[in-house]
Amino acid sequence: MGIQEIATVTGLSKSTVSRALRGMSTVADTTIDEVRRVADELGYVPSSAAAGLATGRQRAIGVVVPVIDRWFYVKALGGVDAELRRAGYDLVLYNLGGPGGDRDRAFRRSMLRHRVDGLVLLSLVLDETERAELELTRHPMIVIGGPAPGLRNVGVDDVAVAGIAVEHLCGLGHRDVAYVGGQDEAGMNVAVPWLRRDGFVDALAARGIAAREDWTLDGRFSFAGGVDAGEALFGGRDGRRGVGRDGAWPTAVFCASDEMALGVVLAARRAGLSVPEDVSVIGIDGHEYGEVAGLTTIAQDPVAQGRVAARAVLAEVDGGLAGPLPASPAHLVVRSTTGPPRAVRA
To answer: Is 122:144 a contact under the CB 8 Å cutoff?
Structure first.
């Protein structure tokens, strides 16, 4: 596929197509838009870009995000950008736009046409087609925020992190523990929610406690989802009381993200419960809103993860070996939303 094919489709001369692809000021904006649209449709990769990918340094790294308005992504992106600027590299952002976005255009055309030296993928799992398209670029690649088959990743050990949360709750005396997790509607790495749930179930089982399915709720990894899950557990604002299948209540709730945990806290208080006297709540992340609200959490540092990922991909660009990376640190931060269960429950 070359410039001649684009010229044939658009009816323009090859020289005009060439200037339009380079965005030169001598070409009208409408012509540039039309040429680039046709180039995308035809899957055109400029020869200069291909040569740059094979032999040259563009001093730019592409960063792919599912969406740009979530706490983890914003923080990790900031860490990547800080490290790239320190190294004298530019950041080229590819926003997939969530579940309704055009992943096909991003993976099959946009990334192949832009000249970057490597890619950082935030919380993404690639399907076989996407992986094959990216392999054509021969870019060094790394994932932040969850494992992806065949790629290095930077992130916490999600199973171990869940175990820390369960250890804290059980250490306080809780045995009736609910779980709020589910899939992230914004397109987060699908492995993360399942690993955190597995860690929760395994940690309870190690203490002789079976996780209850009726206390396992989908919070959609969002504040609103956490509110919905909390209302299902404790009852809504209409006075209904949410209970398990046998009428029992959990004395604690482990949430797989701080945003969900904050939603559960709000729902519990709306239902007339005291936190942590009636129910303890713990999350994962270290979100700054959690600090303001007094949320107990397992804190991670996405900014530091972004920096580590950027350094790793830059080292690979410079010819370094793509060795495995250790799990990122996480630690328990005890605040006011967890405490021992009441001896007698109302």
So the answer is: yes
Identify whether 46 is preceded by a cis peptide bond (ω within 30 of 0). no
Q: Give the C-alpha distances (Å, rounded to integers) separating 108 from 134, 216, 246, 293.
A: 8, 38, 52, 43
Is 53 a residue whose pLDDT tops 50? no
Q: Would you say the pTM of this structure is higher than 0.85?
A: no
Q: Map 312-335 to HEC letters.
A: HHHHHHCCCCCCCCCCCCCEEECC
* Three-class SS of the chain: CCHHHHHHHHCCCHHHHHHHHCCCCCCCHHHHHHHHHHHHHHCCCCHHHHHHHHHCCCCEEEEEECCCCCHHHHHHHHHHHHHHHHCCCEEEEEECCCCCCCHHHHHHHHHHHCCCCEEEEECCCCCHHHHHHHHHHCCCEEEECCCECCEEEECCCHHHHHHHHHHHHHHCCCCCEEEEECCCCCCCCCHHHHHHHHHHHHHHHCCCCCCCHHHEEECCCCHHHHHHHHHHHHCCCCCCCCCCCCCCCCCEEEECCHHHHHHHHHHHHHCCCCCCCCCEEEEEECCHHHHHHCCEEEECCHHHHHHHHHHHHHHHHCCCCCCCCCCCCCEEECCCCCCCCCCCCC
212-240 pLDDT, tens digit per residue, is 999 999 999 999 999 999 999 998 654 45
Q: How far apart are CA 138 and CA 159, in angstroms?
A: 32
Please, what's the b/e burial string for 166-197 (b: 16 or more CB within 10 A of its CB; e: otherwise)? Answer: bebbbebebebbbbbbbbbebbbbebbbbbbb
What is the rounded CA–CA span in Å between residue 228 and residue 237? Answer: 11
Distance between start and end Cα atoms, the chain? 73
What does DSSP say about strands 177-181 and 280-285: parallel, antiparallel, or unpaired?
unpaired
Find all residues with CB under 8 Å of 132, minimum gap 6, and list them: none
Residues 132-181 have pLDDT tens digits of 777 777 789 999 988 888 889 999 999 999 999 999 999 999 999 999 99
